[in-house]
Amino acid sequence: MYWIALLPSREDERVAWGWRALQFTPRVAQVDEALLLEASATLRLWGGRKGLLRRLLQACEPLAPAAWAQGRTALAALAMLRLQLRGQAAPGRIPQEFALDTLSAAREHVPTLERIGCRNWGELRALPRGGVARRFGAALLEALDCAYGERPEQYAWLQLPEEFDLKLELAALATTAPELMWSAQRLLTQLQVWLQARHRGVLALELEWTLDLRRLNGVRLPRQESIVVRTAQPVQDIAHLRRLVGEHLSRSTLSAPANHLRLRSLETTPWAAGSKSLLPEDEMKGERLHQLVERLSVRLGEGSVLVAQREADHRPERMQRWQAARQGMGANAAAVPRSAKRPLPCDALYPPWLLREPLRLEVRGEKPHYQGPLRLLEGPHRLETGWWDAQPQAAGARDYFIARSDEAGLLWVYRERLAATTSEGEMAPVRWFLQGIYA
Description:
Dna Ligase, domain 1, 3 domains, 6-stranded antiparallel sheet
């Protein structure tokens, strides 16, 4: 058997360290003040003891380091850890020399045992078992046998929860969003450990705080307030979640001081690690596009950051629609720039800028004008679509041209091939429209 005893340096990270340990072995238990791991069955998976300890302890970010000790039994490893914390540990120490107070079951009996000259495990083990059982109880002998590996050790093994839900009592009342954010970072750290242990990415989470007051200035207050943070793609990166939560909190106002903070996952999905290239130039550094879009959407507002969604339509003004980026950039969607549209089924050359709505041009002597007469350089490129629309005016039957204006430069214009009729039944003049501008 190979046991490791862990003592996190921060009390609030005890649960997160337990979740982290479950990534290396399913046998993890909380015993007294420490976490105990039995890893003999999984050592070969991690390259032996050194490999396991290196992965478990050295690469422990974002958690703070933890004190540790190892032993042949759980209680021996726990005793070694307690001796190390006192500065008394030394390589090669044997259980017989462990002080009595390093065994939890013997602590309440230490004064009595010391009066009879019994100060360590070896001297306690040398006493008559019958007398020890009658005077101190059978539990002490059972613990001593377990410490020496003569009796099987039984513990309640930790299990990862299906959903992340942790609550934290604040050290002091928080009155502003930045004060809440300082405590929220500790919960986000534990969320990342849970996500890594469950091999999942988070899509939505809720940060909730409990108000310390029920009424303020005669106004009844809710018991809790909360914010919901959503991401377009599954996330394990604590830095991105921290920025998103910070942006949301900066736009929130606390109705009263808060005394508790709660973080829970609303939606998660299995985590698929991204593939990486071996070429140095392919290793892009910095923030990903969807992460930047999410932060800007929170900071500037949903309606201020838009993303284009392609539509199955050949009419240029209907080939895409714009919607809030946080809704449009799903797990399989990406931002589509205005110039990256599906090409026409003809040889027309798209301009780099399209008008939001086609602009009707003045026609003089059957020649279109825009800041002066236009000279048609290329065309016509014919397009006919939209006949399935319920509104006849939505159909498109157009001839596109590249035209030059002495004032505006190169333009993209079209004329309607089907002339409209007047109320008297006569054919109306052919209409021309400006669709785009070449820079």
